[in-house]
Write a structure and sequence with these properties.
heterodimer; A: mainly alpha; MetI-like fold; 14 helices; B: alpha+beta; Rossmann fold; OB fold (Dihydrolipoamide Acetyltransferase, E2P); 2 domains; 21 strands; 33% strand
Amino acid sequence: MKKYSLALLYAVLILLAVLMVFPLLFTILLSLSDNADIMNGQYWPQVLHFENYAEAFTKANLLYYMKNSVIVAAVTTFCQVALALLAAYAIVFIPFRGSGIVFGLFMSGMMIPMDVLMITNFQTINAAGLLNTYAGIILPCIGSAFGIFLLRQNMKQIPLELKEASDIAGVGQFYFFRKVVVPLSKNSIITLAVYCFLVSWNNYLWPLIATTKDEVRTIQIGLRMLSASDTQQDFRLVAAATMIVTIPTLILMFFGQSRLQEGLTKGALK
Amino acid sequence: MIKMENIAKSYDGNTMVIRDIGLEIKKGEFFVLLGPSGCGKSTLLRMIAGLEEITAGDLWIDGRHANELLPKERNLSMVFQNYALFPHMTVRDNILFGLDARKVAKKEQDERLNKVAEIMGLAEYLKRKPAQLSGGQRQRVALARSICSQTPICLMDEPLSNLDAKLRGQMRGEIRRIQRMLGLTIVYVTHDQVEAMTMGDRIMVLNEGCVQQIGEPLTVYNDPENLQVATFIGMPQMNIFRARAEQEGLRLNGSLILRRCGGQPCPAPAEECIVGIRAEHFRRGNESTGYVLEAKAAMVEYTGDETQISFENGQGYSVVKWPGQIPAEAGEALTLGVDAEHLYFFDKDTGHRIRQDGGRSQ
């Protein structure tokens, strides 16, 4: 009986895994094919066309968009982590009247989807004259209720005695923050940074809305323009470019996976 | 060094967890706050440290009014029950933590570190992390940090409670030795009466937020002010009986009778009261000059160096403790003598000590 249920479990898991991985494998196949083959419904390449990648790189100007994406994602990540760290620290380690309410307000922010604020954000950015700038893309994204929540959960596990010992020893808030809290929250910080970088890297709608010119546009928009600008859909190039764009994601996932998992589940167990 | 006047603490404004505490701790004194868990002793210590606000009353530290001083301005150090070591730092950094903030020069820091590491036997562990140390070593690091800060006052919150019995005994002596050597003023919180008796210059027994008694360990043991103190201090616990004065002596718990020998006066100060007798104050046989109790042994226990015999008292069991290995068996009849000065009388309602003839029971 136990054996069968295990077999069933694995069958379900394998099915889900295939469903998940299929788009990726299909994209890889397409990216190595000839366009004529694809049009004929021949999805299994006879000859591997690695030159598709080189063509995608030059034709779609990927490098240029990638540079923008790296700047936007890196700055967003840095600001988001820094702000979330400071906010979480204040909530956990600095007792003040209404800290619970402040935290509740932050959390309620988690329930409002970014898309709802798109129009007001646009108006704000426009009024500030920040359309078509990195700042315009980055600023609305640097506050992260999720980040505050994640880091707060982690910091709450730091024994309060450490703060008290620091108070008695006479070190200041910032010293304690820098020397104790940040090192002890390392895993959660890395988790948040990876997560934030990925979200920012994959962000499509807001960078599109906040820009009208190509100078500051990010790679996801570049990708979209590749498939839209050609009258005849060149699937192999789109697929190749897509693969290139996913590479940073894959690298981050590969190296950060264990930490990501640990960081996301850590607070949950206690 | 530390002076308190009418100190009180309330978290919600209604119920007082600490009431009307007044005391003065002298420089270089080892002062123990003793009490059962939840009696407010840790809260009181944290109020001295500045980690808890003082609801009412005045606190002076080294002559300065300290109610509003920040913890760092009070010039003291603290050893926590869980040691409060920084898990990501080496032993060295843990010991020296905070000295940068106090602007102690690097050279001076190294000198202090070497000296303390030597005293505490930590020299070879300086590069390790706390997780790689045993409980006793962690406790030493916590102590070393406190010593390294060179503050005149050191507060300790049950520092030995996480150690096993053997290490605890060893550390008791060690803390006392270092305290004497450096002339530290230590305020030490514990619920362990052995620690209090062996380490303290003076003990304050606290219960439900109120001072029960302040005094030297032997005074508190020999001359308890009330039932709380009498039963809290001493192992095994002092035997307590409800006593009623009768013609031939004292009726204990309505069953046993504590008979007068010869022409002794009736011992009870009131018709009904509570009488306490320490286990070691019972004598064997009729050797007593005062009173005699006939009982039946219920259980005999040997620890090797002493013998404990319990007997039924009408409402439970009482214990007799004698040095050596006394041959006895359960069911055997016991004749127990008690000297008059070893009877402790307490008011049956308030639990206050009733002294006779102006301190005969000293």
